[in-house]
Sequence to fold (328 residues):
Amino acid sequence: MQKRRLGSQGLEVSAEGLGCMGMSQSYGEPDDTESLATIDRALELGVTFLDTANAYGPFTNERLVGRAVAGRRDQVVIATKFGLQRRDDSWGMQVNGRPEYVRECCDASLERLGTDRIDLYYQHRVDPTVPVEETWGAMGELVAAGKVRCLGISEAAPSTIRRAHAIHPVTAVQSEYSLFTRDPEAAVLPACRELGIGFVPFSPLGRGALSGTVTSTAGFDTADFRAHNPRFQGENFDRNLELVARLSEVAERKGCTPAQLALAWVLAQGEDVVPIPGTKRRRWLEENVAALSVELTPEDIADIEAIAPPGAAAGDRYPPEDMARVNV
Fold:
């Protein structure tokens, strides 16, 4: 497995990670047996960068990851998050960046993961009511206490990233990034590179749309986030399917799947970029890992970007209430 380095604090990870959220929520009913087998297979293939959060489940995904890595903690790099405050009995959530909440969440995550340290601890969303300096002051204390190795921030604006970085070095910024969501290229990625911060794209397959396997929304149940996602609605979905069909033609010429083409494009954006495609199935994990062997020429990249330039995808990437929480 290829390795890549995030930030300037020495955090080395597998060139492709594994997003674990979908094992516990958002993409249909959980299947813990298959999810645990998928994490096992990921480690066999060298995918050792596992991404979770306390909000996933809620609270169940960290326990799942903890079970999966029990007895082999030193073989993995665990990233988790705090900041989206949820209740056990509700999907409702609020953003919370208060220092006392930071400390409370870290201790609870350590317990659920069954570990004495978190390798990469993200602020999941920025709390507009709490200065980021206060939140990051508390996060820095966790590093000093040995509970956390490195710090990150998710879905933050460049100005917020700079303010956080001034308090404690930011190792990684995590944001949605794919051929359907190229927004970070305008300002977030340049800021990361100026400051020496790694970039971790989530949903690099456009929540499955770029895989070419989602041709209808009829099978989405109420537990599937995409049933309410603007990009999977009506005319937006039809337009996005047309983009995927054109990208699939490029993939066919390259002798790879559409998912592998989309991931190869993300991987080609720089050695400081480490995508974390999510899956709870071994078959899709193996397909995703094989994208590391797909080599794109400058001509290939030009063809891909001509089909999917910035802003090509139809519809916002979240419903309005969730869009309000990004790029704060």
About this structure: The chain has a mean pLDDT of 96.
